[in-house]
Amino acid sequence: MPATVDAEGFLTDPAQWDEGLAEEIAHENGIPELTPRHWQVLRYMRETYLTTGSAPTIRTLGKASGVPIKELYELFPKGPAKLAAKVAGIPKPRGCI
Q1: CA-CA distance, 45 to 51, in Å (whole number)?
Q2: Which of 3, 54, 58, 72 is the most exposed place for a label (fewest CB within 10 A)?
Q3: What is the pLDDT of residue 78?
Q4: In this model, does residue 97 exceed pLDDT 70?
Q5: d(CA 5, CA 63)
């Protein structure tokens, strides 16, 4: 069954996510390959969302994921919190446009 997404391409049900889907979403958004550093950020994003009900902000992500903000921009160009949330299969973080 294909995953359902909103108008911006975010999954409407995080339970539909799996690592294969993450790879597809990453490719569609200009990330050719998900490295161990990408997975570190994605797992942190999902864990935080599933535990707290909201996605971490870029500032929290930079402090708590173990990946500095500068590197987050290299891993997820054009807005790391938003793009990482999309690839991680969770709703767009509050405050992202």
Answers
A1: 10
A2: 54
A3: 83
A4: no
A5: 29
Whether the Cβ atoms of residue 4 and residue 12 lie closer than 8 Å to each other? yes
In sequence order, the β-bridge partners of residue 5 are 11
Q: Does domain 14-88 have CATH number 1.10.10?
A: yes
The residue behind tokens 């889907």 is 21
Q: Are 41 and 67 in contact (CB under 8 A)?
A: yes
- Long-range contacts from 70-77, C-beta under 8 angstroms, 24+ separation: 71/37, 72/41, 75/31, 75/35, 75/37, 75/38, 75/41, 76/31, 76/38, 76/41, 77/30
Catalytic positions are 96
pLDDT tens digits, 35-57: 999 999 999 999 999 999 999 98
Q: What is the pLDDT of residue 3?
A: 81
